[in-house]
């Protein structure tokens, strides 16, 4: 059923598959003729004692072998090409779907599971599509054709052979069904193993630093053992088929030899027919084995298809292509949160009753303990998740009424622990947007990144996976340059200066103040100095706002803010009115 659903991917390849099918059928029929010619030579031509017809029919056998060989190779190549191109399309659609999945769905699937669906599951489908084309035509023709040719040679012996086939078919069916269920469990265990490997690779430094290597090794051993156990059960089940089939077919061959011997002795059949029969028996046996392999592969493919389809069938909840409004209300605040409440799937409330407004060009600072809901506000504003209650508005329009691409295009953003890609510095800043080198360099200069970019060799310098060849501060500056490039309408910096020294941080803030005056800025920070010049500061605790106002107001009215401020700045009498840049430069 699930395989049928994925068959739509084969539709565009029907002409190519049909041609391959014809070549395959031709090659297979020619192959079946070989034992028949052999029997004719032995029983009818050799007794005549003339060499010429024997050579002629022998030559025909050779031509048949060559044709079968060439036909099979050509058809197999065509099958591989179809499998490759079809899987490419499936991967393409999967990737596209994954990139549009809401964060909620990504959480539900989990990243490791999406990776295995994208890699090993599509690989299984690739193998299956290839195999079905290679063997799906050939094996049944050899099986049915083989039985027909044996019927023309000796119907009595054919009955012995045919009697074994239903038993073999039933065993294959039962075992393969069980195999499909077991392979689904194997894939699940493989997801779990990938998750541990991924966490381990990402957290390798901290694991070493905390001497957690032994603990991690044990954790990996557990998931690895679990996977091995599941594989063992699945393989043990599937491994039943071959020996049982071999046993049945060998019993059949023994019966053929015994009955055949009696029939030759009685003069009801000839020796050449028995030799050809044995030949065909091997062909039928191999065809059955191939069909068995196909069933095994189909069991795995059914499990993989179900996993791939689960992603492909997931509705894209948050992707709106058309705006649902025709005009923007006048004099509306640029950003407004109205009674916003948010909870993660299966989680408790992360943000409650959030209300604030920001005018265009204003800066909002957000501060609070870890887990207090700071990043959640950003995710909700950019509509990675829909709010659970209340509404978020941009220019007076609910963000759910914007086309998602239009909404996201308004933002320049650095997420907490944001990602750098294995590419050049240029592409990491540009990220596929139509921006000139001058614009990229300008953004880099303002993000205080130009100095180290030049040291690295300019925009063409390589960035390793996740920016592993850069320091923490360099990574953050590159990410800020990415956010600034393109002059966003709304600039969001989520804990993006934690690795910067105070001087660089304040220079960066000064550049933003000078050059991005029109952009509305939302800055999440752990440092009071990063947000103290904001027009509005939110102090969060457990998802609730416990203070809102300017730095001076909060120092006077919000005990938590005052506590953080005093512990970081130390001196309450410091004047905060000076631009941060000057303050830092003087320092
Ligand atoms: N994807 C998620 N699924 C379920 N719960 C989540 C998810 N992301 C965050 N949470 C929970 O929501 C709450 C707020 O998380 P959030 O990331 O907004 O905190 P934060 O203030 O940004 O913290 P930090 O300063 O550590 O980044 C936390 O209790 C967190 O455990």
TrEMBL record:
Keywords: ATP-binding, Membrane, Nucleotide-binding, Transmembrane, Transmembrane helix. Residues 19-300 form the ABC transmembrane type-1 domain. The keyword Membrane applies. It is found in: Cell membrane. It is a multi-pass membrane protein. Its main location: membrane. The chain crosses the membrane at residues 21-42, 48-70, 135-153, 159-176, 240-262, 274-291. The keyword ATP-binding applies. It comes from the Bacteria. InterPro entries: AAA+_ATPase, ABC1_TM_dom, ABC1_TM_sf, ABC_transporter-like_ATP-bd, ABC_transporter-like_CS, P-loop_NTPase, Type_1_exporter. Residues 335-567 form the ABC transporter domain. GO terms for molecular function: ATP binding. Pfam families: ABC_membrane, ABC_tran. This is ABC transporter ATP-binding protein. The lineage of its organism: Bacteria, Bacillati, Bacillota, Clostridia, Eubacteriales.
């Amino acid at each position: 059923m699930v395989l049928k659903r994925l068959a739509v991917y084969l539709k565009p390849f029907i002409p190519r598959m049909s041609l391959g099918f014809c070549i395959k059928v031709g090659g297979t029929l020619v192959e079946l003729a070989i034992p028949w010619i052999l029997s004719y030579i032995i029983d009818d031509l050799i007794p005549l004692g003339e060499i010429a017809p024997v050579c002629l029919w022998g030559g025909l056998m050779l031509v048949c072998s060559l044709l079968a060989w060439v036909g099979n190779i050509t058809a197999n190549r065509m099958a591989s090409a179809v499998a490759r191109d079809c899987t490419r399309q499936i991967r393409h659609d999967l990737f596209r779907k994954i990139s549009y999945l809401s964060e909620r769905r990504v959480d539900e699937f989990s990243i490791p599971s999406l990776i295995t669906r994208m890699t090993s599951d599509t690989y299984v489908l690739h193998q299956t599509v290839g195999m079905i084309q290679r063997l799906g035509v050939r094996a049944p023709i050899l099986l049915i054709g083989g039985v027909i040719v044996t019927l023309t040679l000796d119907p009595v012996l054919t009955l012995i052979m045919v009697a074994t086939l239903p038993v073999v078919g039933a065993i294959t069916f039962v075992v393969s069904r069980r195999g499909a269920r077991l392979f689904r469990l194997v894939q699940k265990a493989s997801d779990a193993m990938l998750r541990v490997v991924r966490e381990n690779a990402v957290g390798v430094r901290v694991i070493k630093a905390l001497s957690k290597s032994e603990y991690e090794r044990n954790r990996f051993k557990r998931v690895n053992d679990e996977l091995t156990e599941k594989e063992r059960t699945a393989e043990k089940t599937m491994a039943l088929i071959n020996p049982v089939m071999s046993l049945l077919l060998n019993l059949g061959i023994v019966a053929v030899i015994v009955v055949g011997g009696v029939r030759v002795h009685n003069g009801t059949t000839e020796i050449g027919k028995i030799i050809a029969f044995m030949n065909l028996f091997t062909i039928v046996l191999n065809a059955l084995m191939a069909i068995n392999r196909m069933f095994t592969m189909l069991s795995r493919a059914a499990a993989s298809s179900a996993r791939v389809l689960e992603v492909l069938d997931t509705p894209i909840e948050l992707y709106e292509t058309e705006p649902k409004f025709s005009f923007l209300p006048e004099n509306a605040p640029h950003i407004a949160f109205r009674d916003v409440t948010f909870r993660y799937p299966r989680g408790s409330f992360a943000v409650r009753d959030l209300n604030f407004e920001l005018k265009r060009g204003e800066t909002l600072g957000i501060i609070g303990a870890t887990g207090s809901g700071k990043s959640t506000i950003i995710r909700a504003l950019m509509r990675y998740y829909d709010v659970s209650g209340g509404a978020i508005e941009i220019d007076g329009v609910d963000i759910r009424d914007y086309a998602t691409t239009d909404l996201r295009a308004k933002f320049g953003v650095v997420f907490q622990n944001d990602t750098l890609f294995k590419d050049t510095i240029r592409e990491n800043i540009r990220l596929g947007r139509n921006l000139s080198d001058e614009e990229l360099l300008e953004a880099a200069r303002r993000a205080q990144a130009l100095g180290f970019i030049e040291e690295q060799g300019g925009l063409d310098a390589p960035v390793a996976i996740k920016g592993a060849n850069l320091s923490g501060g360099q990574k953050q500056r590159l990410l800020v340059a990415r956010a600034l490039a393109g002059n966003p309408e709304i600039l969001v910096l989520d804990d993006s200066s934690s690795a910067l020294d105070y001087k660089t941080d304040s220079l960066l803030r000064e550049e933003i103040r000078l050059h991005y005056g029109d952009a509305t800025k939302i800055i999440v920070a752990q440092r009071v100095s990063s947000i103290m010049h904001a027009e509005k500061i939110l102090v969060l605790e457990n998802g609730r706002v416990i203070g809102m106002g300017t730095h001076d107001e909060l120092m006077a009215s919000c005990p938590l803010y005052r506590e953080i401020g005093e512990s970081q700045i130390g001196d309450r009498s410091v004047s905060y009115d000076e631009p941060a840049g000057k303050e830092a430069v003087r320092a």
